[in-house]
TrEMBL record:
The lineage of its organism: Bacteria, Bacillati, Bacillota, Bacilli, Bacillales. Its EC number is 4.2.3.3. The keyword Lyase applies. InterPro entries: Methylgl_synth, Methylglyoxal_synth_AS, MGS-like_dom, MGS-like_dom_sf. It comes from Paenibacillus vulneris. Keywords: Lyase. This is Methylglyoxal synthase. Residues 1-141 form the MGS-like domain. The active site is at D62. The keyword Lyase applies.
Length: 141
């Protein structure tokens, strides 16, 4: 089963994201990938993966991914946040994380949790998302 996965990384976390995706390139190759602007470009430059790129986070990319989350079209998000740097678009980030909670979308905000989710993905532990795609609460009600 192919899932839709969003990859987002703040500036000081982009290298960590590229290294992470490179390490798990085989796992990610079976899924449809989405990313905010520069993060997506860097992943494609360093791997053989194709990534649907949205705008940069501060320019609306987080909101574009949030729109997919709101309609339950995103299955998993890896968002490597920089907790030590203030972000000018912090309200967008909080809104995205809130939408993930509302829709029950698994989201990792650090590399340790990302690794757990990717290992679960590799084992097939996300088959329950097939049920979600058959019935979309809020839309089919």
């Amino acid at each position: 089963m192919s899932l839709k996965i969003a990859l987002i990384a703040h500036d000081r976390k982009k290298e960590e994201m590229v290294n992470f995706v490179t390490a798990y390139e085989t796992v990610f190759s079976h899924h449809e990938l989405f990313a905010t602007g520069t993060t997506g470009t860097r992943i494609m430059e360093n791997t053989q993966l194709q990534v649907h790129r949205f705008m940069s986070g501060p320019l609306g990319g987080d909101q574009q991914i949030g729109a997919m989350v709101a309609t339950n079209e995103m299955d998993l998000i890896i968002f490597l946040r920089d907790p030590l740097m203030a972000q000018p678009h912090e309200p967008d980030i909080i809104a995205l994380l809130r939408l993930c909670d509302v829709q029950g979308i698994p989201v990792a905000t650090n590399i340790a949790t990302a690794e757990i989710l990717v290992k679960a993905l590799d084992r097939g532990d996300f088959a329950w998302r097939e049920l979600v795609h058959k019935y979309k609460p809020g839309i089919d009600e």
